[in-house]
Write a structure and sequence with these properties.
about 575 residues; alpha/beta; seven-stranded mixed beta sheet; six-stranded parallel beta sheet; globular
Length: about 575
């Protein structure tokens, strides 16, 4: 039994992949975390961002070996620059991009369909529907990549990535490295060469579309021809559950589409439905060929599908109204002992606004902290703050800072900070350094001193890096030293130059984190004011008499509540 992500990693291993590069991002993260199980035969790395990861995989492919790059859907945006161009150049060793879409927005800032990026970049797309297909299809993707001289996208969604299925393991078959041959016309995409390669790409897609009509990746299941369904990926599972008697054309290759096969299937069914999550990528093409079909007029473009949704939309069946027992709401919240809580509490006290970024610290936008005002994408916090200042002046942003995590800063924050310095901004940037890539499950990055493969490496020094950008005023402070942090924030936001405050404190969930002890409340001293609970630590709760108690199992001994108690009712009890 394997997660879809583990099966993708296994399939890549079996296909003879030698290089894997990625930036962690849910729901794709576990692909790379499973690749390191094969580190004796596969080199795997966390790259600083998806663009770099894509370029690393391209380099490996050009050298003649099979290479894989994996990322979530918004990471495809970051990697699109090299993706669009390598589509023109083609490959040497097989090159596969795994793109993990997130229908339902479980862990993302938008709902995006990577098939549309693939169509725009003229890259073929294969979409598996279970773990075994994930293992098999990615092996086919490498073979097709080499056969058609193209990068290939394997698209998955959260449901496939994080669902388990039965997988039949096979031995690794590692093809011989392809010899590198110098070819300026093919590999150097200056305008004169790119014009010719564009023609080659169009011819490649036409040939592949024709071949797709007989590829076993596309499968027809004829049953009752009153209803015919064209589908792919996880929605295939919902179709088989909701419409078990329907005829189905299951597409494994979803771009380019097999026009002849689709026409033949459509001609043999009375009513044709197209079931695909998110955008009508297949539907629009089928309808453009003059083939009548029912699609998004009864199906949504939002979120995940389900068997019940299909039963209701296609068969008119009412979905059961039996509501399961309701559990208490669990809104997302910063963990006990999280250093971000301390930082945001100081900002809230000062009535500051924060231009936010992607990471755990985005939770600073919700009650009770409610400090983060904006979140757009990786690295945007610094650029957003700079744009505000240039639009409205220094006085407008005198109570604003940009907040960004250590991993995100290395992802795309460096360029944003460079821009702020270069264009004479005066903003204050707070780098929330918790020594990990927190929200995606605590992966290492370039400033942790460890690689994905567990090797010790040079640890990027964020302080020195900021200094190297020409920033004179750079400070490091313990995230729980609230008095010093408050002093620095007041001081630096008044400054007419760029400044950086690096708040340093480990994520409390890291294996290397050692708590100082546990906080405990003296009920006799407690004045029931609630100030210690104002920041929303989930380890704290009120008793029936109004006094506060701290759950010793959840408490990580950060001391934030103790700092906020004016009556000395909370103390830190050492574990020693």
């Amino acid at each position: 039994m394997m997660l879809g992500n583990a099966a993708l990693a296994r399939g890549a291993y079996e296909a003879g992949v030698k290089v894997s590069a990625a930036y962690p991002g849910t729901p794709s993260t576990e692909i790379s975390e499973n690749m390191v199980k094969y580190k004796d035969e596969v080199y795997a790395e966390w790259s600083p961002n998806e663009k770099v990861a894509m370029e690393v995989a391209i380099g490996a492919s050009l050298s003649g070996v099979r290479a894989m790059v994996s990322m979530k859907h918004v990471g495809v945006n970051v990697a699109s620059d090299p993706l669009y161009t390598i589509s023109y150049s083609g490959v040497n060793g097989g090159l596969v991009l795994v793109a993990a879409d997130d229908p339902g927005i479980y862990s993302s800032q938008n709902e995006q369909d990577s098939r549309m990026v693939a169509r725009a970049s003229m890259v073929p797309v294969i979409e598996p529907s279970d773990s075994e297909e994930a293992r098999v299809y990615i092996k086919r993707a490498f073979a097709l990549s080499e056969e058609y001289d193209t990068p290939v996208m394997v698209r998955e969604t959260t449901r496939l990535a994080h669902s388990q299925g039965l997988v039949h393991l096979q031995e690794r078959i590692c093809p011989e490295d392809k010899p590198y041959e110098k070819n300026i016309a093919k590999n150097v995409m200056m305008p004169a060469n790119a014009i010719k390669r564009h023609v080659a790409v169009e011819e490649r897609l036409k040939r592949m579309a024709e071949d797709a009509n007989t590829m076993d990746l596309n499968r027809v299941e004829y049953l009752d021809t009153k209803i015919g369904v064209i589908t792919s990926g996880i929605p295939y599972q919902y179709v088989k559950e909701a419409l078990p008697e329907a005829s189905v054309l299951k597409l494994g290759l979803v771009h380019p589409l097999p026009k002849k096969l689709i026409r033949e299937f459509a001609s043999r069914v009375e009513t044709l439905y197209i079931v695909e999550e998110l955008e009508p990528v297949i539907e629009e093409q089928v309808r453009s060929w003059g083939i009548p079909a029912i699609g998004k007029e009864i199906f949504t473009v939002q979120g995940e599908y389900s068997a019940n949704m299909l039963r209701h939309a296609v068969l008119g069946q009412e979905v059961s109204s039996n509501v399961p027992a309701q559990v208490p709401a669990r809104p997302p919240i910063l963990c006990p002992g999280c250093p971000h809580r301390s930082v945001y509490s100081v900002m809230k006290k000062l009535k500051f606004h924060a231009a936010g970024d992607i990471g755990c610290y985005t939770l600073g936008a919700v009650a009770p902290l409610s400090v983060v005002d904006t979140t757009v994408c990786m690295g945007a916090s610094i650029s957003n703050l700079h744009g505000m200042e240039k639009a409205k002046g220094k006085d407008y942003v005198k109570d604003w800072v940009a907040v960004i995590g250590d991993s995100t800063f290395l992802h795309t924050g460096i360029n944003s900070l460079m821009n702020m310095v270069y264009n004479k901004g005066t903003g204050t940037v707070v780098i929330l350094d918790n020594s990990t890539t927190g929200m995606t499950g605590h992966q290492d990055h370039a400033a942790t001193g460890k690689t994905l493969m567990g090797d010790t490496t040079y640890m990027i020094n964020l302080y020195k890096l900021c200094k190297a950008l020409g920033i004179e005023h750079v400070y490091e402070v313990d995230a729980f030293d609230e008095k010093e942090l408050e002093r620095l924030l007041k001081q630096e936001t008044k400054r007419e130059e760029v400044s950086v405050i690096i708040t340093k404190s480990q994520c409390a969930l890291l294996k290397t984190f050692v708590p100082k002890g546990k906080c405990a409340v003296d009920a006799e001293k407690c004045k029931k004011c609630g100030m210690c609970m104002a920041s929303g630590c989930p380890a704290m709760r009120k008793r029936e008499d109004g006094t506060v108690e701290i759950d010793p199992v959840m408490c990580n001994g950060c001391g934030h509540c103790m700092n906020n108690c004016k009556f000395g009712a909370i103390s830190l009890i050492s574990d020693k």
